[in-house]
Amino acid sequence: MNVPPIRVEEDPVPTVSARPVRAPMDRDWVVVRLGRDFGSLPPEDTLPLFRHPEERVPVPAAVLVPLVNRSNGPTILLTQRTAHLHAHAGQISFPGGRVDPGDRDRIDTALRETLEETGLPRECVEPLGCLPEYDIATGFRVTPVVGWVEPPFELAPDPFEVAEIFEVPLAFILDPVNHRRHSEVKDGRLRHYYSMPYQGRNIWGATAGMLHSLFRILSAEP
Q: Per the CB 3.0–4.6 Å rule, which of 21, 49, 126, 206 could disulfide with 148?
C-alpha cells in the first residue's frame, strides 16, 4: 500500500546566517572559490542528507551546473523534465545522467548528457571545477560539474525529456533568504531536503541540495 508522505517540519526562514554575496561573481571569482579545500568550510547547521551505506555500490552519474555569463550577472541554467517520464517527472533538474562506459571522466559525462538533453554545444562550456558528490536515494552518486557558458549559444532541447529550459540568477541562489529546508516521512522513512521557490517554480530535492552546496562554497569567506 502506498503511504502518502507526512510533512513533519518546514523551516521557511533562512537556513544559515550568512548575508547575500556582494562580490562581482565573475568567472575568476568562481574559479578561486571552487579551488579551495571544501573541508575547510566553516561548520553550518546543514540537513542530515542521504548517504549510501558502505555495503552499497552507488551508480556513478554527473550533472552540469551551467553558469551563464549574462550582462546583468551570471545565471544558472536549469531544465524542467517532461511530465510523462518514469523517474522525477516534471521536476526541475540540472542536465546530466549516469556515466557511460565510453566517458573519459565525470566532466565528459556532464557535457555529453547536456548536449543530448539541451543541445548546448560542448565548445560553449568551460569546466571550472566540481562540487562535492551528492548521493540520491534512487541509487546514484552524482558529481556536479560547474561550467562557465559564454553567450551567444543556441539550444535544442530533447522534447522527450525536457519540457522547458530556463535560467535563475546566481545572485538569487547566493541569497540565503531564498533557501528553505524540509523534513517529511515517506514510505516509512524520514527524509530531509532543501527547496528554493523561484517565480512560481519549485526547485527542490537533489537539485536544491546541490545548489545549496554551491551557495556554501561560493559564499564562504576566503
A: 126
Task: With CA atoms as reference, report the closest residue to 95 among 80, 76, 75, 117.
Answer: 117
**Of the candidates 28, 95, 80, which has an alpha carbon nearest to the alpha carbon of residue 199?**
80
- Ordered by start, the domain boundaries in the chain are 20-37+47-219
At the top level of CATH, which class does the domain 20-37+47-219 belong to?
alpha beta
The DSSP-derived string for 172-201 is: HHT-GGG-EEEEEEETTEEEEEEEEEETTE
Question: CB-based burial of residue 31 (10 Å sphere; 0-12 exposed, 13-18 middle, 19+ buried)?
Answer: middle
Question: Do 193 and 209 meet the contact criterion of CB atoms below 8 Å apart?
Answer: yes
Per residue in 152-166, pLDDT (tens digit) is 999 999 999 899 999
What does the pLDDT read at residue 111?
98
- Tallying the residues shown for the chain, one arrives at 222
pLDDT digits (tens, 9 = 90+) for 109-133: 999 999 999 999 999 999 999 999 9
Is there a contact between 50 and 191 (Cβ–Cβ < 8 Å)?
A: yes
Take residue 75 and report the three cell numbers written for it: 545565471
Task: Give the position of cell 548521493.
Answer: 135
Higher per-residue confidence, 203 vs 42:
203
